[in-house]
Amino acid sequence: MTPEDFDRLQTLLASRAGFRLTRDRMQLAEHRLGPVARREGYHNVEAMLASLWSRPVASLGWSVIEALLNGETWFRRDRAAFEVMERELLPALTAARPGGRVRLWCAGASTGQEAYSLAIAALEAGAQVEIEATDLSRQAIEKALSGLYTSFEIQRGLSARAMLRWFEQVDDQWRARSELRAAIAFKRANLLDEAADEGRFDVVFCRNVLGDMAPERRARVLDGLERRMVDDGCLFLGRDERPDGDSVAFRPVAGRKGLYVKSAAAARRAA
Amino acid sequence: MDPRTCLIVDDSRIIRKVARRILEDLSFDVAEAADGAEALDYCQAAMPQVVLLDWQMPVMDGLAFLRRLRDLPGGRAPKVLFCSVETRADRIAEALSAGADEYVMKPFDGEILQAKLAEVGVVQSPS
Questions:
Q1: Domains of chain A by residue range
Q2: ipTM
Q3: Looking at the DSSP assignment, which residues form a beta bridge with residue B55?
Q4: Which of A79, A191, A223, B53 has the smallest C-beta neighbourhood within 10 Å, fewest atoms?
């Protein structure tokens, strides 16, 4: 891969996915694109990229984009966020919402571990939740939808008891049980696209997404999240992520790292 | 935090070595035993805080050790993590009902072991 190729990849990722492909990921990019080139029938990565640059972005472009995103995730990542959800938010929201129905959105759900962790928390608490889980990567969403995890993946963050309770063994993999899968609607969606306004969420998990985004795209994503949240909706970001400077719509909750509430100012502006 | 002791019980020297490295990085004091009988001797002399326990071993296997351990004075205190190539759901359930606090399917890596230790509350969860 030439430095020019890498520059163009950076532009592609930033414009289509808002993703900041940093220069230190050049080797990683080369490594990840190898299998894509083989799958798409090219001799090597250079040949694939040459073909990519000569045409408008279509399915090949998206395969390249997906391969370069950061899909790292595991069950109950940053445990504290799930504990706040289980102990405080779910009981409070269940009591406050009509019919006890709570709507959650996992924005940037990757391969589904976070959405399944939320579904487990809700079902164990007897809460009625509808979970929508979206990701830009079609491959990630397909895996999430299958609910199938290797023994490496299933052990990362999940207790053995939770694994036995909520997953069934299928050969050497583990599949989310049907009641768990029924609690979640997985969809491919781009956080940069205009939000189709189809109902609002009480709680949004958008963790470890903003941190990888090009700074000039963060405001747009936060704006899109805010539009789809109820007026006192809660937003969980990754442990070290903050909306500061990119949005005035959220204020932090003291003592709850990564948790933000949609602020009155945003509610007024929307009204 | 005070140094805590983890006893690694496995008949494979390689597994003990790999696990020792991970546990020492998590600031455990590590002791080793090659089978259940050796491990039981160790526990009778000084009860560790954590036991990482293989299942299939000569002399005394993991399940037999675990049942004997839980009957010792103070033997309910250690957090026991089974760590085995056995991955059948019913066998995992059997180990848990025999008194194991967690179960690690081999092969494992540092991230998995740390996550499982966090699950039983002896280390911080990874981030």
A1: 3-68, 79-270
A2: 0.91
A3: none
A4: A223
